[in-house]
Amino acid sequence: GSRRIWMWTRCLRCNGKPTQRVIISSSARNLSFGKFLELSFSTHSAAKKLSTCGHLLHRDCLRFFGMGPKVAMFRYSSVEIYSAFKPPLTLEFHNPNKRECLEVEFNNVLRKWRLLFSEAKNKVQILKSGDSGQALGENTKASVHDELFLEVNRILAQQKNEFETFDLLVKSGTSAHGILGLNWLHQLLLLGIYIWDVRLQHILQYETRTNFMVMENILFGRNIIRRYDLKGALFSRYVLDSKNPENVLLDQNFIEDMRAMPIYIEGKTKNLLERAIWNDTAFLSRMTVMDYSLFVGVDKQKKELVFGIIDYLRQYTWDKQLESWVKTSLFVPKNLSPTVISPKEYKIRFRAFMSQYFLSVPDA
């Protein structure tokens, strides 16, 4: 009798006594326990089975399985299934107010642009006047500075003309073009403020050049409750203050959260996620790029996982190879690998992590 598996239930809605124990049939015992649970809980017929009290067996009852002194209890609980949303190939716009709303925003941005040009021009004149006074008697230095100021004024005039031309093109376009143009003007304004600030600070020094890359904000307009930066590495990838919703959490936080409050996606959604990751990582590996991340945002309201690969500009140069060797030799535990490894190894580890820790359920 010690090898027999007994089964009984207790209804939570009735809060009554447990039912009489019954022995699991020999045909059921021939199944694996996992398969038996799947047939008992996951099928459409199982969802309609009633307990002796008339309540649903799989939803309203605790189910017990015992063998000898050991007892396992199962309780039904529903899970939220998320879909995955990657950045779209085509941008679509639906704006009921159309051009009226755009004109207000455009005028606001135009006013800030013209203010930037005016302040930059005034600042150049002030610097030029002060520099002319200090450079009296130094003809060579004065000549060099005059050329520099002429070049700065030329750049200022050129950018102002380009801005006015771009403004006319945007206003004559469609609503979609207007929204794109407005966003572009916003981005250019932020960059313009910074660049002119740097340019004016270094106007009497050597010319410098700074490159920027503007990326899409995939979280715009969403109710994001959790956000993760995932590299597929475990060493030194944990944020202690994980309760702050504004913090970007890392790989070890993600594993911890998936155990405590898992997020499930359908099988077809996981296939979409994996296919996108496979294609992108194959390309990045060919370009000898590593140290990139999968940025994931959890949109509770829409029940969507918003994801995209970020930080994909770092190639596996000699300094990164040296960093990998030093960390592997001195700091990283033997059973873990450092964040920085070769592009091929990085691709394999990245894919394996995403496949393992994004939990899927069978398609409905």
TrEMBL record:
User: Is Repressor one of the keywords?
Assistant: no
Q: Could you tell me the Gene Ontology terms of the biological process aspect for this record?
A: phosphatidylinositol phosphate biosynthetic process
Q: Name one GO cellular component term.
A: endosome membrane
Instruction: Give the organism the record lists.
Output: Oryza glaberrima (African rice)
GO MF annotation terms: 1-phosphatidylinositol-3-phosphate 5-kinase activity; ATP binding
Q: Does the keyword Transferase apply?
A: yes
Residues annotated as domain PIPK: 29-358
The record lists the lineage as: Eukaryota, Viridiplantae, Streptophyta, Embryophyta, Tracheophyta
Q: What is the protein named?
A: PIPK domain-containing protein
For this protein, the record's InterPro entries field holds:
PInositol-4-P-4/5-kinase_C_sf, PInositol-4-P-4/5-kinase_core
